[in-house]
Amino acid sequence: MQFTATQIAHLLQGIVEGDPNASVSKLSKIEEGGEGSLSFLANPAYTQYVYGTTASVVIIGKDFELTAPVKTTLVRVADAQGAFAKVLEMYNTIKLDKKGIAPQAVISDGATYGTDCYIGALAFIGENVKLGNNVKIYPQAYIGDNVTIGDDTTVFANVTIYSDCVVGKRCIIHSGTVIGSDGFRFATGPDGGAKIPQIGNVVIEDDVEIGANCAIDRATLGSTILRRGVKFDNLIHIAHNVEVGENTYYAAGGVVAGSTKIGKNCMFSGQVGIIGHLKIADGTIIAAQSGISKDTKAGEAYMGSPAFEVQKYRKSYIHFRNLEKLVERVNALEKAAKPQYTSSLGSLISSIA
Questions:
Q1: Is the Cβ–Cβ distance between 55 and 37 less than 8 Å?
Q2: Chain-centre distance of CA 23, in angstroms?
Q3: Which of these, 50, 14, 45, 16, lies nearest to 30 by C-alpha position?
Q4: What are the catalytic residues?
Q5: CB under 8 Å to 164, separation ≥6 — which residues?
Q6: Among residues 77, 114, 79, which one has the least CA distance to residue 99?
Q7: Distance between CA 98 and CA 314 in Å, rounded?
Q8: In what order do the strands lie in the sheet with 215-217?
């Protein structure tokens, strides 16, 4: 892929300063830019690099004032960071724009797929699978029987989607993730645990992204559900019959136990654990490594394990950090008061005698 400064300016509605024919074929950070690369300057902390960079083209804000000459060609835009993000999106779209069915792919009888699909080598597509238009199934992915995947969804290599699951449009599922594995349910008794069959499925709505090596368990009955716009980082486990509300973000290492219902627009930091059968209200924010053991209130932030409201946690944590000093003070007070208590006790015994 090769573009000129003029083409980039046209795409971003910008203005070229320098050589309009300057050509780029790769992207780079401004401090690492080389000939043939496109970079950007948005953070003032990196201003120094614009004067020495050897990147062929740099996207820069329209109001940025130069204090010295530059060697590079500039493309001035209203929002440098937003413009570069648009370039990244275009680059990624072109890079991942694969089409066609590899001869080594296995597609079972009754499976159907729409136009412009890609199915990579050694991918397996089960019976009665329905793939929409422009769906991309990368090599060695497994799509079980009766799965439905909507238009423009990408399933990267080594993803496993068990039977009967539903994936919406414009979703991204990264490598190593398992959708629809059995929920962890056993009927315990004196002779050990008997496995409870998990006959539900997983439903993933539109515009969901799931990171690498996540596990989304199927429901015992009904569905485990990820609502529209949910974004998961890597290494997240969602147990059976959980529901995650719209536009909720979950950073890496999170665990949600069975049947918990999470509201919309929540934000969970890394390694947050949530026990089962809770109701997490809309807009809940949870700090990293917190353990949630009770229902939350809408719009509240929580911290700690077990977690409670973040303001109360911070006040309590101040006391915790001063605990050693408090113990020393109590010990000193007890030591000072001990002779007095001993003298009073001796007088009491003498009067009784």
A1: yes
A2: 35
A3: 50
A4: 240
A5: 144, 145, 146, 147, 180, 201, 218
A6: 114
A7: 50
A8: 106-107, 124-125, 142-143, 160-161, 178-181, 215-217, 237-238, 255-256, 273-274, 291-292
Tell me the C-alpha distance between 302 and 286, whole Å. 5
Give the pLDDT of residue 315.
78
Residues 36 and 88: their CA atoms lie apart, in Å, by: 16
Mean pLDDT of 38-47: 93
Other beta carbons within 10 Å of 305: 13
Map residue 302 onto helix, strand or coil: strand
The encoded tokens of residue 130 equal 């329905």
- The owner of tokens 């990147």 is 55
The answer to whether 142 touches 160, Cβ cutoff 8 Å, is yes
Report whether 279 contacts 297 (CB < 8 A): no
For residue 325, is pLDDT > 80?
A: yes
Tally of CB atoms within 10 A around 257: 18
User: Which has more pLDDT, 341 or 241?
Assistant: 241
Q: What is the DSSP letter of 25?
A: -
Q: pLDDT for 106-161, tens place per residue?
A: 999 999 999 999 999 999 999 999 999 999 999 999 999 999 999 999 999 999 99
pLDDT number for residue 9: 94
Least reliable range by pLDDT among 53-57, 203-207, 208-212: 53-57
The burial of 83, by beta-carbon neighbours within 10 Å (0-12 exposed, 13-18 middle, 19 or more buried), is given as buried
- 66 and 48 Cβ atoms separated by less than 8 Å: no
Phi, psi of 336 (to 5 degrees): -65, -35
For residue 351, the model assigns a pLDDT of 61
d(CA 349, CA 311): 52
Q: What is the DSSP letter of 47?
A: G
Mean pLDDT of the chain: 92
Q: Is 344 exposed, middle or buried (0-12, 13-18, 19+ CB in 10 A)?
A: exposed
Asked if residue 194 lies in contact with residue 218, where contact means CB atoms within 8 angstroms, the answer is: no
Identify the pLDDT of residue 349: 59
